[in-house]
Amino acid sequence: MLLDNHHxxxxxxRLAVTDRCNLRCRYCMPAEGIDFSPRSELLTFEEILLxxxxxxxxxxxxxxxxxxxxxxxxxxxxxxxGLSPLFPTLAMTTNGILLPQHLDRLVAAGLTNYNLSLDxxxxxxxxxxxxxxxxxxxxxxxxxxxxxQLNTKINVVVMASRNDDELLDFVALTKDxxxxxxxxxxxxxxxGDGNHHLFxxxxxxxxxxxxxxPDLAVNTDxxxxxxxxxxxxxxxxxxxxxxxxxxxxCGSCNRLRVTPKGTLLNCLYSTKGLELRPLLxxxxxxxxxxxxxxxxxxxxxxxxxxxxxxxxxxxxFASMTSIGG
Length: 325
Ligand code: SAM
Ligand code: SF4
Fold this sequence. Notes:
This protein is α/β, with parallel strands linked by helices. The chain has one domain: Aldolase class I (TIM Barrel, Alpha-Beta Barrel), CATH 3.20.20.70. The chain has 10 helices and 12 strands.
């Protein structure tokens, strides 16, 4: 079992499989992209599977594939084949553009949960935010997920003066669709000014939604969820608000992260990770790996503010694409 020194069990891995992406979302990457990792520096599928078997034995029961755009990693469905017998919940966060061509195969391979990133319902705004004219692709992915009745969430990064006027439009989307919309606080990203002006707090988002829907029902059954869930009475779907930057829900954190190059991180705000790739390439065995990971997780800080202070990280991210969001 993976326990940290604050009596929390780690059961959830966010696994970034690539730092490459077919979009250039302004809050995530500069227009020219980042210094992408050469393929030889990415964990191979064999290395990922050894790591994941070890983590499953240590009690991890949920994995989320992320990136970069996870579907831009060649052969990803083969990795899903290998991971699905290990974990009851196998999820992916994707911008959806490549999803239609892979969906049948992903479902057959055992992917159970789909988070689709979609920050606007307006095509011209999609282009402004992502620098690519791909709204139709992401929307098509949503329609396919819904038609197949797959477990679907929509991730919306909420930005002041960019898409915050669409909060209620996204809530309206949950009226006739059994989806869960997740409104995410924008985290400052270092493309010059850090985008601090885009920040809109989780509290402010909820206040604005409540002003139109004062009778919201609250569902708090999942204590590990990074968002409380709300439902407008009579609506099929629900929504949640993720205080990614305010970090008010860190106290019940159950997650670990692995970057595309194989750095294990206890927190999104960590700078001090455990470098797994050299260990895996040196032929480390599962029991030794399990021991090192157990010690590493025990040292997890109590919350993201403490991590940021003690590990002297910045609150401004280089790019979410190399951490996985
Ligand atoms: N490419 C995939 C996608 O966009 O769904 C997966 C990787 S992306 C880094 C994972 C999540 O992080 C997405 O939902 C994205 O919107 C979110 N994200 C990226 N940069 C962010 C930022 N600066 N603040 C808040 N969320 C961010
Ligand atoms: Fe790509 Fe996702 Fe980052 Fe957008 S948020 S640039 S889709 S990795």
